[in-house]
Structures are given as C-alpha cells and as structure tokens.
Amino acid sequence: MGFLLETLIGGLMTGLLYSLVALGFVLIFKASGVFNFAQGAMVLFAALAMARFAEWIPRIAHIHSKAASNLLAFAAALTVMVVLAWLIEKLVLRKLVNQEGVTLLMATLGIAYFLEGFGQMLFGSDIYKIDVGLPKDPIFLLERVFPRGVLVNKEDLYAAAIAAALVIALSLFFQKTATGRALRAVADDHQAAQSIGIPLNRIWVIVWSVAGFVALVTGIIWGSKLGVQFSLSVVALKALPVVLLGGLTSVPGAIVGGMIIGVGEKVSEVYLGSQIGGGIEYWFGYVLVLFVLLFRPQGLFGEKVIDRI
Amino acid sequence: MTTEGGVQDQSGVRPGQGSRATERRIGDVLLRVDRISLSFGGVRALADVAFDVREGEIRAVIGPNGAGKSSILNVINGVYVPQQGRINYRGVDFDRMNPHRAAQMGIARTFQNLALFKGMSVLDNLMAGRNLRMHAGILAQALRIGPAEREELKNRAVVEQIIDFLEIQPWRRHPVGRLAYGLQKRVDLGRALALEPTLLLLDEPMAGMNHEEKQDMSRFILDVNDEFGTTIVLIEHDMGVVMDICDRVVVLDYGKKIGDGTPDEVRDNPEVIDAYLGTCH
Fold it and tell me: Is residue A308 situated within a structural domain?
C-alpha cells in the first residue's frame, strides 16, 4: 500500500513537470491560435541561457553569493526571452497576420530549429548544470501509517508548488483581466480583434514573453533535475499528449492532463511493465490521448468547437 | 432601465421616412475617399473610387457581387492599403490607415462573415470592444485594485446599456458560437457599438436574414443613427432596405463608381439599372 502511494505521488510530480511544458503550449494557443512547436526549443534555449549566465555573471561581476548570481542570471535569461519574443513578433508573426493556422504552425517549426541551433552556438553544446538550491534530499512521509513511510522527493514538491502558483496566476490573468480578454479575442479572430483596436503586435509580444517566462521556469526545474542538454528540447514531446488530453485552450486542463498522464504511465510501468516487457512509459500518454480524442475531440477541458453550417 | 423604455417608445412612434430625414441634421463631410485604386496582383478591385460621407448620414454602398464593396470598407478601416488615392477623415489626410489607428479615431466595423470571438460570452465579446478604454496595468486588473475595478465597472455599465439596446439580455452569458445567426449578427453590431464609434462600417448587416430579422436590424441601425448621431456606411444587397433607410447611395460595378446620389436618383440612373438592378432582379 505504501508502495502504491509512493508510485502515485511520484507519478503526480512527474506529471506536474510535463504540465509546465504543456502550459507554454496552451498559453500561445489560447492567445494566438497557433500551435507552437518551438516550445520545447524555447525550454532548452532558456535553460541554456540560465545555466551559462549563472556561470558567467559571478566571474565577470565578482559576485560570490550564489543566491545573488542566480537571481541576476534569472533576470538576464528572462530579458533574453523577452527580446526573443519581440524578435519573433517582428521578424515572423507580423508578416503572417491573418494567415491560416497551418502557415503559422510551420513558422513555429522553423523557429524551433533555429532556436536549437542558435542556442547551442551562443551558449555551447555541452551538458551544463543549473543549481538554484532546490533541495535534492528525499523525505519520508506517513511513517506512522506505513512500515517504511512514503518516499517523496523534496525537489518534486517544490516544483509542484511552483507549477500550482503559475497556473493560478495565469488563470487569473486570462479570465479576469482586460488584457487576458484581449488575448482570447486575438486567438479567436485576428481581423476582428484588430478592428476593435486591439494592438495585435503588442499582444503577441506579451504572450510570447509570458510563454518565454514559463519556458524559463520549466527549463530551470527540468535542468536542475536532469542537467541542461540537448535532450531537454525533447521533453516537449512528453507534453504533447498532455496538452491534447487537457484541451489546447485550457490552463487547468494542462495541469490535470499532466497529472493523469504522469500517474498513468508510472502506475502502468510499475504494475504492468513486468508482464508485457516494459517501456510503457514511452507510449502510455499517446495511447491514452488517442483513446480520449475518440470521444472528446476537444480534450477533457478544451472549448468545444462549434461551427454553424 | 433594463426594459429600455426609450427604445420601445421610439420604435413605437417612429415617424415616417420622409419626416425622419427632415428632422435629422446631416452635417459636414466626415469622410472622403479620394481616387482610391486597389489591386491584388493583376486583379483590379477598385479603380479611382471617390465619394464622401457626411456626418450623421446613412450611406449605402451597393453593387453586384465582386464589385469591390467590401474592399472599399477594408480600405477605410485600414485592412487593405490602396496603391493610389487617399482617405480624408475629419479633415485629416491619410495615405494609409491601419486598423488600430482607425479604431482609435472612432471607426468601428462589423463583418460580412461573422468574425466574432466564438468561444467567449456575449458579455466578453462586447467588453473586448471596450479594450481601447481600459488603461489599468495588468497587475492591477488581476488583483482588482481600486482604479482597475472602477474602470471595469464603468465599461461594464456601457456594455450593459448596449446589451439592453440590442435586446440580447437573455444571452448575456452564452458563448456566442452557440447563438442563432441573427443574434450573432446583433452581437457583431454590439461589439462595434462598444467602441462608441463616430463612423460605423457595416458589411452586409442583413445578409442571410429572414424578413423579420431584417426589420429588427433596420430598426437597430436607424436607432443607432438617431440616438447616438453615429454616421453609418453600410453594404447591403436588399434594395428594399437600402431604399428605406439610406440617405445616399454609392453604386460600384467592377471596381468603378457608376452612380452616386439619393436612393431615388440612383434608382433612375440607367447605368445602374443596367449593371445592377437589371441583372440581379
């Protein structure tokens, strides 16, 4: 029983990490109707920037406090992501206003390849580490209930708290603010949004900046867990079933979707893996999503697409 | 307040068309498009089109399909940039408009093929139309701090008035994608009205409507014009409606202007009869 609980909690935590990446997808989709294939590359890019700045800044500025240099590196990396958002708007999106969704999708594919190459050219292509002081030690819970307690990774708990805070903030932003309303309006119809004076260009810079911020937070958490390396851009593939399951337009959906897939793949790996040969983790999410999409094409929490004919 | 006695009364005692025209004051020229030419690749959409719109009038643009009616509307609010010609709005010349600036200067529009924010409620669609009047910072909005809250409430009050005016109260919270077509057209108009425009561009506001819906929409357009003094440029196919509610009519055919004048003048213009009335009806 203790072991099952441990597996569940482990799965939930991993799921929340998927959710963080998924959140980036949802943000951009909600606010511009674009499925942003570059989200994974943005995570890698942001993590590389963070790792390298944390290395360079203390050396250049002679700062010895780790907290201070991490904070500076975070600010610098965030600036880089905002500049990136601005460039993407200026050089790519602005030219593609009122184009088909698929055109924009291809453009983000291009951005993804560019970022992967450019990021490694700029920041190097070795494996770097990010150390923002997330505690690595495991803790044991409920020792009185179960014989050996339930093992939980403290780092995962922090990550979960950060994910939760981000989701609450972003949900408020989208549902309760006039800017959030403008973002949703842009997602539904570019031309109509323009006609009521919503400045498309500024909106896009805002939303890509926020997605860049989410990518940075994701990059830091994943990076401090796994190290910053090229394979980080592949975590986006893990997030793909998560967004589809949760619904492309739902911020809470990204979280719930992440948790379902995280728990599902861990539990099935542990309890079924030995019987059918393991490796379930790698395809579980995709198969689950395939199944769900048969019944709910908009995902669990997505907005239903209604078209009058 | 919510029953909007004013609107009901006025529609009840609406005077005949003749007296309406005399009682309403039509002012100076508000908008002048001057020798506009627009082409897409080799296709000429507009050739040397020029006309003016006076303050407070209802101006129709008519013409057969593909005559360039929507194009001229898109030039006025800056979606298309013409290769030649200029736009004079409130006495200022512009070589080109852009939609954002047009909205800031009080030009609002509706769309031929509904371009609503389908996933959002009626209320949110109209509130989005108030976007230009929301100035509070993002953080203040999220936390509902004093000025941001007051701003939201103030704009909300205006939007509620528009909702009452268009008689769409029961659907306030519905996602617009689920509303009947005629209602969606009203929401489209409402969103444009939320800008409190000086000049309202309506692209086929009655397309696809039945007789009753057309009457409702005509009434709304006349009321907007009467009560708020909004100048209206509208594209319409239904000649009956055009003759009834418009002060002056521009006729386009193959991107050229072939007629301009009061409904009666246009109706008697042989070129117009040839190009439009003759072939269409």
Answer: no
Whole-number Å distance between alpha carbons of B167 and B3: 9
What residue has token string 């101006």?
B59
CB contact under 8 A, B131 and A178: yes
Alpha carbon distance A140, A149 (integer Å): 6
The candidate with the shortest Cα–Cα distance to A193, out of B131, B159, B189, is: B131
Q: What are the pLDDT digits (tens) for B15-73?
A: 444 445 545 568 888 999 999 999 988 888 999 999 999 999 999 999 888 888 999 99
Interface probe for A, chosen from B141, B173, B202 (most Cβ of A below 10 Å), is B141
Best residue in B77, B101, B111, B131 for a mutation probing chain A (most A CBs within 10 Å): B131
pTM of the predicted structure, to 2 decimals: 0.77
Residue A170 belongs to domain spanning:
2-295
CATH number at residue A109: 1.10.3470
Rounded to an integer, what distance in angstroms lies between the CA atom of residue B222 and that of residue B57? Answer: 10
| Number of domains within chain A | 1
Phi, psi of A14 (to 5 degrees): -60, -40
Residue B141 at interface with chain A, using a CB cutoff of 8 Å: yes
Answer whether A179 touches B (CB < 8 Å).
yes
Q: Angle, nearest 10°, between helix axes A2-32 and A200-226?
A: 160
Q: A45 burial class (0-12, 13-18, 19+ CB within 10 angstroms)? A: buried
Gap between the Cα atoms of B233 and B43, Å rounded: 25
